[in-house]
Amino acid sequence: MEGLLDFVLRDILTRVGGVDRCVSEFIRVTHTLLPEHVFLRVIPELANGGSTPSGVPVRAQLLGSDPVCLAENAARLAAMGPHGIDLNFGCPAKVVNRHGGGAALLEDPELLTRIVSAVRRAVPAHMPVSAKMRLGFNDDARAVECAQALADGGADELVVHARTKADAYRPPAYWERVNDIRLGVSIPVVANGEIWTLDDARRCRQASGCTSLMLGRGMVTDPGLALAIRRADEGAGGPEVSWEELLPLIGTFWVLVVERLELRQQAGRLKQWLNFLRHRYPQAEVAYAALRTLHDPHSVTQWMVEQGALASAAAISRHHHQPR
To answer: Directed axis angle between helix 263-277 and helix 297-307, to 10°?
Structure first.
């Protein structure tokens, strides 16, 4: 989820619990062998054994359409120690599709096989190679064919976003079509799309036949969603993550944003997350309204202290003056 679920938010959300694995934002590959620092910029977890600070493994995602170039980059990336290589065949962005990447590749199953096969040969045999796809580009007529093409190329696992590119992110998600794909391949299939609540997770599992789920915007909106699903699976139940529990994590998120992102990005990143959270927490609506017109990090920090999200401004004040 480019520009949203970056390494900072991965850090915070995996602290809450319930997450087995993360997948990075996609790294675009276009006829160039990228230097290691590019991979580290997107996936700084590579310097931490390939896991978030709370110990959740991260799989690195590549996006492109050239089998040879993708394979070369996958080999370099694999040597840096991610917990697998993931290939993006689902991005619906026009700028990506216009250059033959993401969901546009679902129009060419033969190319899907060649890409996965090239990457599979390029990385160590013990390292998983997975793929994420949508149901298709304009329609879902070739959904099973595309999934089989990815499996034939050697993919170890398949994540299916249960909409086409044409569907974009409009509800509903067609989870029953994921079941068709699951029955058509012999590799594990993970269902994704329109999972916002524990009830959605249950209905998705029933319709798709998949045990494993991938959470995106639903997890950003409700950071306790994965934990709720995990507790339900264990028959434990338990209270939802409250705003009072989440508030110090929002404070930590802000500290990390100030430390790691450019000054011009800082306030916007916090407001972006609060914009999601306000659909789940009434208190986030209040916070979003209070911060909406603020752009100066000092003012944001002061608000955080006043709300109890930070003990004091001292811990991060020095970062406001660092050159970017």
So the answer is: 40
Which amino acid, 279?
A: H
- Report how far residue 240's alpha carbon sits from residue 228's, in angstroms, rounded to the nearest whole number: 7
Domain ranges of the chain: 7-233, 243-321
Whether the predicted pLDDT of 320 surpasses 70: no
| pLDDT tens column, 115-168 | 999 999 999 999 999 999 999 999 999 999 999 999 999 999 999 999 999 999
Rounded to two decimals, the pTM is: 0.93
Q: How far is CA 88 from the centre of its chain?
A: 11
Radius of gyration of the chain (CA): 20
Whether 321 shows a pLDDT value over 60: the answer reads: no
Q: Which is it for the CA torsion 94, 97, 101, 107, positive or negative? A: positive
The one-letter code for the residue type at 98 is R
Q: Please report how many Cα atoms fall inside a 13 Å half-sphere around the Cα of residue 79, on the Cβ side.
A: 8
Examine the pLDDT at 106 and tell me if it is beyond 90.
Answer: yes
> Which positions are annotated as active-site residues?
91
Beta bridge partners of 191: 160, 213
Evaluate whether the domain defined by 243-321 bears CATH number 1.10.10: no
CATH C-level class of 7-233: alpha beta
